[in-house]
Specification:
The protein contains six helices and 17 strands. The chain is of the alpha+beta class. It folds into three domains: 138 residues, no CATH class; 97 residues, no CATH class; 87 residues, Cathepsin C, exclusion domain (Lipocalin, Beta Barrel). Helix 2 runs antiparallel to helix 3 and helix 5 packs antiparallel against helix 6. The longest helix has 33 residues. The termini are far apart. About 14% of the residues have low confidence.
């Protein structure tokens, strides 16, 4: 048996060793935490004090794990709403939206196709002339109000019509000429006619008859201006008397409602191609803004823009300019905000003064700070928002971020 004196000496030595080792480990932990407490650029931030651990008492309930982000509920396809059809014949299609707020119809008779949408006490009517059901052109578009002051498409009208379009797209037979006319007319009404402005009346045959041409005219070309996004372009338009106007605007700038995009403003929910930019759509934007309406003096510009809207392809994604960044390390709801400016030479700068380089592949953007912090995200179809994840230089910390496009300007 070991003498009592020797046993006490061993205990004293063990305690001394523990007192030396524990502070060393504590210092390692502090340094490790400090390395990974980063801002959006991966720069070190002030290290918070290390809290001491207190064992829970018998009355203390175990702490619940915090949920990361709201639960995403996917809508069942069975719950998707569908328009209600009363008739679906080769020469007559009639029905109503699921909420019965808008009546729709498309009928063919005596060489004319008439498409109608009735809601909120007014009727929006499209009249087409045709040589065959596949060869046709718009002759006129008009609104028939049931009282004065209703000859406009309001923002409320547009919301109802856009909802109907989503319902119809689930059931419309695009190979059926009449049903396809119904959907294409709704596209034009929702996306290319400004809300809350005098509707006026579109008559494509009137001007053509005066020029001695046939009344059924369909433009066959459009000029793609995708490469000019972010640059100033001069557009031209005229009035009914032949007076020509010129005006300069930046193409595709979210700060000025994306001039040149085929469709009003920067985005419409449900539009198939959200990044179309043509010279004809640009001219119509300028004309409608100058005269305060889509038709009247702007009838010919509308007709020219219509073909590009129907067939032009999407532009590639574009990121040069300023984006509003919201970042969240650990994705736990603790966010910070910055402004990120992407330059055309693939550099970027944060409003905090740090920067690095960016690359773009399709709709996937990767941004790497000089410190090594990496952002990788997917740009939305409208090119107005980016969502993704971020990783610290060591790779041990991750986070989430969202960016909203502000302007194509970089100054």
């Amino acid at each position: 048996m070991m003498p009592l004196k020797n046993l006490i000496s061993w205990k004293v030595l063990a305690i001394a060793l523990v007192l030396q080792i524990v502070p060393a480990y504590a210092q390692v932990d502090r340094d490790d935490v400090g390395e990974e407490i980063l801002d959006d650029a991966g720069e070190e931030m002030d290290i918070p004090p290390i809290e001491t651990y207190t064992p829970p008492t018998a009355k203390t309930k175990p702490e619940k794990k915090e949920k990361v982000g709201p639960a995403v509920k996917r809508k069942s396809r069975r719950n998707r709403k569908h328009a209600i059809f009363f008739e679906r014949f080769p020469r007559s299609v009639r029905g109503t939206s699921s909420n019965q707020k808008v009546m729709f119809s498309a009928t063919e008779n005596s060489g004319k196709i008439v498409v109608s949408f009735i809601l909120n006490g007014k009727e929006f009517r499209f009249v087409y002339g045709y040589t065959s059901l596949k060869e046709k052109a718009i002759e006129n578009i008009q609104v028939t109000p049931d009282s004065t002051g209703q000859d406009i498409k309001t923002s409320a009208d547009n919301t109802i019509l856009a909802s109907l379009r989503m319902e119809l797209r689930r059931d419309i037979n695009r190979l059926d000429p009449l049903e396809n006319d119904l959907l294409s007319s709704l596209d034009l009404l929702v996306d290319m006619i400004q809300a809350d402005l005098p509707f006026g009346k579109f008559e494509s045959n009137k001007a053509e008859e005066q020029r001695g041409k046939t009344q059924s005219v369909k433009p066959k070309k459009y000029d793609d201006i995708c490469a000019e996004r972010g640059h100033t372009r001069t557009g031209t338009f005229d009035d009914d008397n032949g007076n020509v106007y010129k005006r300069n605007q930046i193409i595709g700038d979210p700060a000025s409602e994306c001039w040149g995009r085929c469709g009003t403003t920067c985005f419409q929910r449900g539009q198939i191609r959200k990044r179309q930019y043509t010279d004809q759509c640009f001219s119509h934007d300028l004309c409608a803004d100058h005269f305060g309406g889509s038709f009247g003096n702007c009838t010919d510009e509308f007709e020219d823009a219509r073909y590009g809207y129907e067939v032009s392809s999407n532009c590639a994604f574009y990121v040069v300019g300023k984006w509003a960044l919201t970042h969240d390390w650990e994705c736990n709801g603790t966010t910070g905000t910055k402004t990120i400016t992407h330059y055309s030479d693939h550099r970027f700068m944060s409003s905090s003064g740090t920067g690095g380089t960016w690359t773009l592949n399709g709709n996937q953007i990767v941004r790497v700070y000089s410190s090594g912090t990496r952002y990788a995200g997917a740009i939305s179809e409208s090119n107005l928002k980016t969502e993704g994840t971020m990783t610290s230089p060591s790779g041990r910390r991750r986070g989430c971020f969202i960016e909203v496009y502000i302007t194509t300007r970089t100054n």
